[in-house]
Fold this protein.
Amino acid sequence: MTTTDGDTASVSIQDMSKISGLSEATLRYYEKIGLIGPVPRDESSGHRRYGGHAVERIEALGCLRATGMSVQDMRDYLRFLDGNGDGGDGNATRMRELFERNVSRIQEEIERMHVRRRYLELKAQLWSARERGDAEGENRIVPEVARAREGLR
Amino acid sequence: MTTTDGDTASVSIQDMSKISGLSEATLRYYEKIGLIGPVPRDESSGHRRYGGHAVERIEALGCLRATGMSVQDMRDYLRFLDGNGDGGDGNATRMRELFERNVSRIQEEIERMHVRRRYLELKAQLWSARERGDAEGENRIVPEVARAREGLR
DNA sequence: CGTTTGACCTCAAGCGCTTCAGGTGGGAGA
DNA sequence: TCTCCCACCTGAAGCGCTTGAGGTCAAACG
């Protein structure tokens, strides 16, 4: 997985993908848009070789991406990590704020998901009633669907 | 909001957007990909005029889209509605299955969201500890972050 | 020693929209 | 009547990736 040449470990894109959970295509894409990189290449083959420093950063990015964090927030995260957000200790505050914002974002998404589930459950029930030819059940569900629809933003 | 000419109500794209919750751009896009339409136009201005039949369908699509349903499932939904899924009563079954699949999809998403929230909360706490210079708190949180990370797919 | 395999490369297109740029028709006010 | 504005139009580009086509390099196999 890693090769030691001198003191620097070097990781292939495939391994970097396994480590970070980001697809190889995404790794190339992140490099292209300047979120990571430029990644050094193997002399003869031209293949990417991720060095120890990069590996840790990209592993972290994998986690953040997995939470649905925006590319801009990932950029800020790296900037704060490197101490170029403000200088000094203000960056811990920026980091906290960044994560708190994202917690709120997820929280709101969860709440919206519950509403959506409710709506879809009722729709499933409605068609289930129709499937059985249960006209009465159908009539009971229709107004509930209408109510659930209101919550769907 | 609606104009009566004869017996057909005609709705502008702006109003259709308000009714359905889909943006004007999305309405044009759905037409372009053949999910809806073609929508009749006003003779002189060339503006879209949605007729009563289309209005109901698009309103329904708005709800489905709001739940995150895929374009393909929306296509199937319309097909089953029109009775071209199978013929006869098999379509109620198809509809039920379609909605049940989507309930499961949402359910899984909700579960993943909880894991993500947990991870982000811990990260926020970690940086909060650093912000306060609380090295001890930091040490308590680090292993928890590591554990939460495992769940992130 | 030629060939096959596999990991990797780049470039282009597609997905589901959103946003933007540039243009038209028609009604209202000066 | 002239002009302004508003609602609408089309087409193209952007976002964050994913998928696919077509080509290179190096180690392994017959």
The beta strands of chain B are 3-5, 8-11, 50-51.
